[in-house]
Automatic annotation (TrEMBL), chain A:
Organism of derivation: Suhomyces tanzawaensis NRRL Y-17324
Record protein name field: Gaa1-domain-containing protein
Gene Ontology biological process terms, A to Z: attachment of GPI anchor to protein
Domain of life: Eukaryota
Keywords: Membrane, Transmembrane, Transmembrane helix
Ranges in a coiled coil: none
Automatic annotation (TrEMBL), chain B:
Coiled coil, from the record: none
Species in which this protein is naturally found: Suhomyces tanzawaensis NRRL Y-17324
One GO BP: attachment of GPI anchor to protein
Localization (cell): Endoplasmic reticulum membrane
InterPro entries membership: PtdIno-glycan_biosynth_class_S
Stated family: Belongs to the PIGS family.
Transmembrane segments: 21-38, 479-502
Pathway membership, UniProt: Glycolipid biosynthesis; glycosylphosphatidylinositol-anchor biosynthesis
Protein keywords: Endoplasmic reticulum, Glycoprotein, GPI-anchor biosynthesis, Membrane, Transmembrane, Transmembrane helix
Membrane topology value: Multi-pass membrane protein
Name this protein carries in UniProt: GPI transamidase component GPI17
From TrEMBL, chain C:
One Gene Ontology CC term in the entry: GPI-anchor transamidase complex
InterPro entries in alphabetical order: GPI_transamidase, Peptidase_C13
Catalytic residues of the enzyme: 160, 202
Annotated pathway: Glycolipid biosynthesis; glycosylphosphatidylinositol-anchor biosynthesis
GO MF annotation terms: GPI-anchor transamidase activity
Record GO biological process: attachment of GPI anchor to protein; GPI anchor biosynthetic process; proteolysis
Designated name of the protein: GPI-anchor transamidase
Gene3D superfamilies cross-referenced by the UniProt entry: 3.40.50.1460
Keyword vocabulary terms for this entry: GPI-anchor biosynthesis, Signal
Organism in which the protein naturally occurs: Suhomyces tanzawaensis NRRL Y-17324
Taxonomic classification: Eukaryota, Fungi, Dikarya, Ascomycota, Saccharomycotina
Domain of life from the UniProt record: Eukaryota
Length: 601, 518, 375
């Protein structure tokens, strides 16, 4: 009691509270910097952990795989066949493959998704298993690079033959041949759990296999593992595959870092992998050229994509087959679902990771930054408390109105896109994107021109809107934090310029134009569609931001990815509310007070 | 306190009163209902066992048993006085040598009157040997191996020397009941048994399985007249009926090789089984000798070696009967055919071949059951065996009951169900009844069967199924079941109680204050 | 040729150096061996863990089953508790087999395996019941430990354990006190002559430290805070096939024959940290004999003392003849007096005890009522 009181008195005496309030924008900014700093610390030695297998039952690389040289010829044979019909329609290709699978004793069926070609899938019922669980090997006809998945199909056929000769399966094996790993695979997974007649029990794990025209040899394999909406496969599964690859002495890579880079395992390779990991997790589901593992998200299926890279290297095609085989053998050893190990993690290399407890504070810090700056906006704007009460209705109704617009857009825009004729899809998306960019430009830069508007917000409403929006973003990050860390963090960091606006409005009284330009720039760069435009152009040089925008608009419909809703109902309304506050906000202030304040600081 | 506050004051005291009543009610309920409830559901049921009775009985039962074995002397009229002098001579000598048997075991010499069956009763007859007729004649005795009768041959010189009672005493105490006295004395003194003897004896059971097995080393057909041989055996079993019962099975097993290979000895032109390899002769792994019956099994194996087909003998080294005994398990006889076996003929073992084997098995059966070695008469031996087994059974039952009580005292977690208690009582009941039959009627058969019952009941009490359940159910688990309830309830009650206490204290302080101000 | 023989020579020298057991001179052994005083041998072999990846536990226990059977303990005197059926697990690449070595030389599941308790029957309750022999009256004989004061019992446990507990079936666990108390009950009822207790789990030695009954010799594979390790994996079956402690035990026992005079201390010499990779424990303070005087076959085998030639003549003859020499016929003895039996009113076992669970449920229910009343 006494101690707390002395401390409180001391605090009061020194006037720490007003000082702290004045410093809130600085503190908030420090928090945002700290958040990035936190991320930078993670790849340092001692901050991350080495991967390990925590499920005893998996026992990776404890069994010999006999998918060796003798099978190589078989792979070659199938590849020759696959090569021959590369340019045939998928339906006729599927027929050939179906015949092969039938001859091994697989039960084959097609799934009609009504949009793309039918998806062939085949089931090998475990001869001695209890027929309640399954593992999936998905082999798209075209890889994520839009290459003909020649090696993949041939390898899958050879593996199918090899699997059918073994008696050790306790889980059924399903082979799926979708046209691509995007919508066709996703709709198959959905249909498998809802409408398909031919099923083989709950799917425990899935591997998507991509092996383009690499021939017999490849340099290294790359693994993709990001699921939709921040979901990740159980780390045990990845570790299992990685350990098997390691024991096969196969070079491997993740997050687009080539294997020779990643094997260096320096601070910078780890940082790069970490940041790319966050990036790809944020964007997962938004591209049509997906690796395919995210198609299994949401059904408690642990999945990853394995893709052969290069065509000269030390590794041969059977080694990749052995990775698939041994991983299946490990999963086969499981008795139930993956339940040990981590579901939330960030990989730094194939053998290092940070778990949720370690990386979570980064997003928490950003969230706090926004909360503090929201508080600062309320307390530092010189508006009295009563005035806020008076403006509350306007603030809330304005914000509500903006949200309502958001909701309308959230549903109407994807609807328009999806129902647009196929050939006009790109144009439609482009137009929508343009609209948003226009809005951005208009809102961001209109204050520069000092347009007289009939309608004006008073100061209370202006700062109230800014504070509410900042608080809204803070809450958004908090909610997303655990389920979709990457998205929360990225939104948080990209929206940080919004926190500068309120302090800048105070600065405006010193040097109006300069400050106004700064405000406009802050608004402009933190607009979600500006970010999307930049990112999209960077990621896809060909079709520019359109493809990312299209991904955003259609991903819910096609994959049940809710990133679009987060953007249009979370980030964009907050941005718009701040923008409108700036545009329509009253400028008249008590100059002297503001100047004094600045001088004293 | 100011006067306008009186209304609120009274309301408040009202509230206080209600609160106190509630706390009181809850408290009373907790103590009167909750506590017994928790106790009754968490405590293990432990029936009260008759500890005192068992301990006293276990310590003293030898003083409560009184064997008075009637022996009938066939004495001509006019010599009745001889009986009392013989009795005193017997008692004097016996209790001088074995004071521990005083009151516990004794002979009751009576004059043979009326019809007594020598199959049933101990009868002593006297035969006067005419010295004149035979110069070298000396006193003699003959214990009939077929009955319980004994004939003493007395010379006139013996009679004249007045040494008949001494002679009688020696015959009775040394020759007829010698083994019984020795064994009972050991039992009473709790002397350690000569280890080999007890190791051979199979633990007592009121019924045994007896399995006669013929084992051959190959698959050639073989026959044996075991049915007839068993008929010969039946009277032997029947003689034991006061002691125990038997259920008999026979089987032939082919392709039964012993676990150690038998070495051929050139010198003797036969296969010799050394004493060392005998201990592993029986092939428990391959020979199907398992009976799935709960009764203990006595096995009698006739092993028919393959060497018989070559006319070569298989001989157990240093054994004249070519047989051996496996302690607590049974007997084995290696059978060698006297005549060479003709090719392609079915081997059959005839009754007359089996007869000597059955003789061996009878002897082994007696050894396995722990019958005394003397006298020869099976009747007397079984009597002795029954009496000793009776004492042993009583001792064992009481020991089991004692162990049970000791266990229940040392293991606090173990439950003692009512069934256990009932079986303990039944066992004690049987023991007491058997005492009565022994002491009042000298009815050894009934006492024996009651002692077997007592043993059975004491085992049932000890092995009661329910006594396991709580043994591995730790008390933390019990607490864990109740903790979710005890926590909230306890805290509410505690806080209420605290509040009442504080109120009371405040009230008192107020009262003191008021007093002061007044 | 010369070269290869040289290699053989080298190998044998190495194997000697690695501490292959010195077979004891028979004469020498016989002079030192104290008699155990038992007449029959029993073995209780228990694996407690389920699931395919615990293959080695089943292999451990089946290996010992095979060994004690080979050394002469009859199946009726071996209680085998096998917690999972790995031989028929779909993951088994060699259906119907269990191997304890990657050379796959011996199929432990070969023929004549008599499993007394399988799968979910392997519970703590059944194990305690087995030791204390408390069963329903109709429990089959083959599933009971019908030992007496002349029985030597070898008890082997393997599974996943911890400090003073051993997990059964991933569900329940037995504590060291439970086993100690069960042994005490066996001792009180004179149900054993000597017990040899062997346990191969993590922190195994903690399991026997609570024993307090006499004549128990105990060994464990690892001390407190130590794991026990598997020996090697079979890369075709894809699992570890045997644990180190058991591997070295078997490795030694394989050289033992039924009539061997090798003593227990020679086996214990195998238990080195180099072999086991953990600290094996041996407890002898409860045991009355010197370990160097104990024959391995006192526990692992069924070597019986036999009595040769103490046969009495004519017993059968006098039993079935009258004094006058006529044979007692099959019918004549029926006329003999039958014994009267005294009847007892047996208690019915039902209705004596209300079930514990019922009581607890009632208690919780009533306490809940009280709680409601309070609120």
């Amino acid at each position: 009691m006494a101690l707390a009181e002395t401390v409180l008195r001391k605090v009061h005496k020194l006037g720490l509270i007003p000082k702290a309030i004045k410093l809130l924008p600085v503190i908030s900014f420090v928090m945002a910097i700290a958040s990035i700093g936190w991320l930078l610390v993670l790849p340092l030695d001692g901050q991350y952990r080495n991967t390990y297998i925590s499920e005893n039952a998996l026992m990776p690389f404890q069994v010999n795989s006999y998918f060796r040289e003798s099978e190589w010829n078989i792979v070659r044979g199938y590849r020759e066949e696959v090569k021959k019909f590369e340019y045939d329609p998928i339906s006729s290709k599927a027929e050939v493959v179906e015949k092969w699978l039938n001859s091994f004793g697989y039960i084959t069926t097609y799934h009609h998704n009504g949009v793309t070609n039918d998806t062939l899938y085949a089931i090998l019922h475990a001869p001695r298993g209890d027929d309640t669980e399954a593992m999936v090997l998905a082999v798209p006809w075209y890889t994520s690079d839009k290459e003909h998945n020649e090696g993949g199909i041939a390898l899958a056929a050879a593996l199918a033959r090899y699997f059918s000769k073994m008696s050790i399966w306790s889980k059924n094996i399903i082979l799926v041949f979708p046209e691509t790993s995007h919508y066709p695979l996703r709709s198959w997974v959905e249909a498998y759990h809802t409408s398909l007649d031919q099923t083989a029990g709950s799917i425990e794990a899935a591997i998507v296999l991509e092996y383009g025209k690499n021939g017999d040899h490849f340099d290294y394999y790359e693994m993709f593992y990001e699921g939709l909406n921040g979901q990740l496969p159980n780390l045990d599964l990845l570790n299992t595959a990685n350990m098997i690859g390691f024991h096969e002495s196969l070079p491997s890579s993740i997050q687009g870092t080539p294997s020779h880079e990643i094997s260096k395992n320096t601070y910078f390779t780890r940082l790069r992998t970490l940041l790319r990991g966050i990036g790809s997790l944020t964007l997962s589901g938004l591209s049509r050229n997906t690796p395919g593992c995210e198609a299994f998200s949401g059904w408690q299926i642990q999945a990853f994509t394995i893709k052969a890279k290069g065509s000269n290297g030390p590794a041969d095609v059977t080694q990749l087959g052995r990775v698939v085989d041994s991983t299946f053998r490990s999963v086969n050893n499981l008795l139930e679902k993956f339940h040990q190990s981590f579901f939330f993690y960030l990989l730094l290399s194939t053998r290092n990771f940070v778990s949720i407890g370690t990386y979570l504070p980064a997003a928490v810090l950003v969230s706090i930054a926004f909360a503090l700056s929201s508080l600062g906006a309320v307390l530092n704007s010189g508006v009295k408390f009563d005035e806020y009460i008076g403006g509350l209705t306007t603030i809330l109704s304005t914000f509500f109105g903006i949200e309502l617009c958001g909701v309308v857009m959230a549903f109407s825009l994807p609807y328009i896109t999806i129902n647009a004729p196929k050939e006009f899809e790109d144009v439609t998306v482009f137009q929508i994107l343009c609209q948003f960019v226009l809005i951005n430009v208009a809102v961001s830069f209109s204050p520069l021109f000092n347009i007289k508007s009939k309608y004006k917000f008073n100061k209370a409403v202006k700062y109230g809107l800014i504070a509410l929006s900042l608080f809204f973003i803070s809450m958004l990050i908090m909610t997303l934090l655990i389920v979709h860390f990457a998205l929360a963090l990225i939104i948080g960091i990209l929206a940080v310029p919004l926190t500068f606006i309120q302090p800048l409005t105070l600065l405006r009284y010193v040097n109006e134009n300069k400050a106004q330009i700064k405000i406009s720039l802050c608004l402009f760069v933190s607009n979600p569609f500006f970010v999307l435009f930049i990112a999209g152009s960077y990621l896809d040089a060909e079709s520019g931001a359109v493809s990312l925008m299209r991904g955003l608009l259609t991903s819910w419909h096609e994959l049940q990815c809710w990133t679009w809703f987060v953007v249009i109902l979370g980030w964009f309304p907050a941005w718009l509310a701040i923008g409108l506050g700036v545009v329509f906000g009253e400028h008249e202030v008590d100059y002297s007070k503001a100047i004094n304040k600045l001088k004293s600081s | 306190m100011t006067s306008p506050a009186t209304t609120t004051d009274s309301a408040r005291s009202n509230v206080t009163f209600i609160r106190r009543t509630i706390v009181a009610i809850v408290f009373v309920m907790l103590v009167s209902l909750g506590y017994p409830l928790v106790m009754s559901t968490t405590t293990v049921y432990r029936a009260e066992l008759p500890t005192q009775e068992v301990t006293t009985l276990a310590n003293n039962f030898k003083h409560e048993l009184h064997f008075r074995i009637p022996v009938f002397l066939d004495i001509p009229n006019g010599l009745e006085h001889f009986i009392s002098s013989a009795q005193s001579s017997v008692d004097e000598y016996l209790y001088a040598k074995h004071p521990e048997l005083k009151g516990f075991w004794g002979l009751d010499l009576q004059r043979l009157q009326g019809e007594k069956n020598e199959e049933e009763d101990y009868i002593l007859r006297f035969d006067i040997i005419d010295k004149d007729a035979n110069e070298d004649a000396s006193e003699s005795f003959f214990i009939s191996p077929f009955s319980r009768a004994t004939t003493l041959g007395l010379t006139t010189s013996l009679i004249n020397a007045n040494k008949v009672d001494e002679f009688l005493r020696i015959i009775l105490l040394d020759e007829i009941f010698g083994q019984e006295i020795q064994q009972l004395s050991n039992l009473v003194l709790e002397a350690p048994h000569p280890s080999l003897q007890t190791d051979v004896v199979i633990p007592y059971s009121p019924k045994y399985n007896v399995v006669f097995t013929l084992l051959t080393e190959n698959g050639k057909t073989i026959e044996w007249d075991i049915e007839k041989a068993i008929d010969l055996f039946q009277p032997a079993f029947h003689k034991l009926q006061h002691f125990t019962n038997f259920s008999i099975n026979t089987q032939i097993q082919y392709y039964s090789k012993p676990s150690t290979e038998i070495a051929f000895n050139e010198e003797q032109n036969s296969y010799i089984i050394t004493p060392e390899s005998l201990s592993t002769f029986i092939n428990f792994g391959d020979w199907n000798l398992i009976t799935h019956d709960i009764l203990p099994t006595i096995n009698f194996l006739v092993f028919f070696p393959e060497s018989n087909y070559d006319g070569i003998k298989t001989i157990i080294d240093k054994s004249s009967t070519n047989s051996f005994l496996v302690p607590q398990w049974g007997g084995v006889k290696i059978l060698n055919k006297d005549m060479p076996i003709l090719k392609d003929s079915t081997v059959s073992i005839h009754e007359d071949e089996l007869l000597p084997i059955m003789e061996i098995f009878t002897s082994q059966l007696y050894q396995l059951l722990g019958a005394p070695e003397a006298p020869k008469s099976p009747n007397i031996r079984v009597d002795i065996l029954s009496r000793i087994a009776f004492v042993k059974n009583i001792g064992k039952s009481l020991e089991t009951l004692k162990s049970l009580i000791k266990l229940t005292e040392s293991l606090n977690e173990i439950s003692v169900p009512e069934t256990t208690k009932n079986y303990v009582n039944l066992s004690l009941d049987a023991i007491k009844k058997s005492f009565a039959y022994l002491n009042n009627e000298q009815n050894y058969g009934l006492a024996m069967s009651l002692s077997a019952d007592a043993l059975k009941f004491s085992d049932k009490a000890f092995f009661e199924k329910e006594m396991v359940q709580q043994a591995y159910f730790p008390s933390e688990h019990k607490l864990a079941v109740f903790l979710p309830l005890l926590g909230p309830v306890g805290s509410i009650v505690f806080l209420g109680f605290l509040k009442v206490l504080l109120d009371r204290r405040k009230e008192k302080r107020d009262a003191v204050k008021r007093e002061k101000t007044e | 040729m010369k070269f290869s023989s040289l290699i053989v020579l080298c190998c044998s020298v190495i194997s000697l150096a690695l501490g292959s057991p010195q077979v004891v001179n028979t004469d020498e052994a016989e002079t030192v061996i104290a008699k155990s005083g038992h007449t029959n041998n029993w073995a209780v072999l228990v694996s407690t863990s389920r699931f395919w990846f615990n293959y080695r536990h089943m292999a451990n226990v089946l290996s010992l089953y095979r060994t004690v059977k080979r050394l002469g303990i009859p199946d009726s005197q071996i209680i085998l508790m096998l917690s999972d059926d790995i031989a028929c697990n779909p993951r088994n690449a060699f259906p119907g087999t269990v191997f304890n070595n990657m050379d796959q030389a011996i199929d432990l599941y070969g023929d004549l395996i008599e499993v007394d308790y399988r799968g979910y029957e392997v519970t703590v309750e059944n194990f305690v019941r087995l030791l204390t022999d408390r069963w329903d009256p109709d429990h089959p004989r083959s599933k009971r430990l019908l030992t007496d004061e002349n029985s030597n019992i070898f008890i082997y446990l393997t599974g996943h354990g911890g400090n003073e507990f051993l997990k059964f079936q991933d569900a329940d666990e037995i504590g060291s006190y439970d086993i100690a108390d069960a042994f005490e009950q066996m001792h009180e009822k004179k149900r054993y002559n000597e017990i040899f207790f062997m346990i191969d789990t993590c922190q195994a030695n903690t399991m026997y430290e609570r024993f307090y009954s006499p004549n128990i010799l105990a060994v464990g594979s690892s001390q407190i805070e130590e794991s026990s390790y598997s020996h090697h994996s079979d890369m075709d079956i894809g699992v570890a096939v045997i644990d180190r402690f058991t591997y070295y035990t078997l490795d030694f026992l394989e050289k033992i024959k039924t009539n061997s005079k090798v003593t227990m201390d020679k086996l214990f010499d195998e238990y080195t940290f180099e072999n086991i990779h953990s600290t094996p424990g041996i407890r002898t303070d409860l045991f009355n004999r010197e370990v160097k005087d104990v024959l391995l076959t006192d526990f692992f085998g069924n070597v019986q003392d036999v009595v040769v030639d103490e046969v009495e003549d004519d017993l059968l003859y006098i039993s079935n003849h009258y004094a006058n020499g006529t044979q007692i016929t099959h019918d004549s003895h029926k006329t003999l007096k039958a014994i009267n039996r005294v009847a007892f009113d047996l208690p019915s076992t039902e209705g004596f005890s209300t079930s514990k669970q019922g009581k607890i449920i009632a208690g919780v229910f009533l306490a809940g009522l009280i709680l409601l009343f309070l609120k």
